[in-house]
Amino acid sequence: ILSAEAYRRRHEITVTGDEVPPPLTSFEDTGFPSEILREVHNAGFSAPTPIQAQSWPIALQSRDIVAIAKTGSGKTLGYLIPGFMHLRRCRNDAQLGPTVLVLSPTRELATQIQDEAVKFGKSSRISCTCLYGGAPKGPQLKELDRGADIVVATPGRLNDILEMRRISLSQVSYLVLDEADRMLDMGFEPQIRKIVKEVPARRQTLMYTATWPKEVRKIAADLLVNPVQVNIGNVDE
Ligand code: ADP
Ligand code: MG
Predict the structure, then answer these.
(1) Which tens digit of pLDDT belongs to each residue from 67-113?
(2) What confidence tens digit (pLDDT) does each residue in 3-46 have?
(3) Opening angle at CA 147, ends 143 and 153, nearest 5
């Protein structure tokens, strides 16, 4: 068994923040309920990825996180499983609106996140709806009306649906900004800021980004409260 320091060194993890908990280097250490552990074993995963190992215990403490890691590092389950745990603690009536909101830059990524949420959340009876542009609103609105614990959305489409007053974000208490740098590159900053204004300030916010330029630092400083920063590998500015 590696110490926290040795594990971080081996996987090029650096953390910044107060009393950062040690990484959870095996699934058994996570304390996740058996139905979630069954899903990860069924998927053939043998251990958490470094970003999961380090960000899970922080997210489970309900703290804000900025995680900087390149693609393919397992970030999706890094935020989804703590989101499932959050839902187990405080699930609202899905008819009132989602409890978990994930913003993602593209339709393709948003549907991948939804697929992962459905696959790993099924046994916990978690419902998930996806909202993205370039497709008719009708079917998305219809699905939304059935209620969803988790909404995964691109900022443009979610903002349109907010303006139509067909969704309420008043129940959201776990907000994820995935691929934040890409969303900003695509010009979504105004939409993101409008959306976040509709989310209660009393929430947990997690931001994931592959790079850490000053625009991303600025929005992180505005939207997150005393976040723990987790870097995996070298960070491009
Ligand atoms: P990222 O968002 O960082 O680009 P993803 O979350 O899309 O990465 O994960 C990349 C791939 O790794 C996915 O196919 C995912 O199912 C898989 N994966 C996630 N966690 C693990 C794990 N602990 N062990 C093995 N594979 C994993
Ligand atoms: Mg991803």
Answers:
(1) 999 889 999 999 999 999 999 988 788 889 999 999 999 999 999 99
(2) 999 999 999 999 999 999 999 999 999 999 999 999 999 999 99
(3) 65
ipTM score over 0.95, yes or no: yes
Best probe residue, ligand 1, of 25, 41, 49 (max atoms within 8 Å of C-beta): 49
Reported in sequence order, the residue ranges of 52-189 that DSSP labels E, i.e. its strands, are: 65-68, 100-103, 128-131, 150-153, 174-177
CA of 109 to the centre of ligand 2 (A): 7
User: Which atom number of ligand 1 is nearest to the Cα of residue 116?
Assistant: 16
Largest CA distance in the chain: 54
Question: Structure tokens of 230?
Answer: 């987790």
User: What are 75's two structure tokens?
Assistant: 């970030």
If you measure from the C-alpha of residue 71 to the centroid of ligand 2, how many angstroms do you get, rounded to a whole number? 6
Q: Which ligand has the shortest distance to the CA of 178?
A: 2
Ion ligand 2, residues whose Cβ is below 5 A away: 75
Distance CA 106, CA 183 (A): 8
